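New to this. Help decode both lines:
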Amino acid sequence: MKSVNRRDFLRMAGTSLIGMTLGGAALRANAQELLKKDDPTAKALNYTPKSTVDGSRCGNCMYIQGDESKSERPCAIFPGKLVNVDGWCSAWVKRPG
């Protein structure tokens, strides 16, 4: 097994950070279509545009992206789609903080 020196580690970490940042920007830029309940991924994750789970909604999930003033925003779970901030799916995870 090859050991990684500090310089190589910092180079890999920096490249990863840049990739994650640009990937998040691309996700926000490409999300255009509102997620429908009959979408196969939405069905698999029990997505609903109106949460029935107390205290859990897309708007306070760690996967939601974009402008917090919008009622429909991109989600990392559903690439290229917008979700309703009042929605919910089984992938919901509380946003830290």
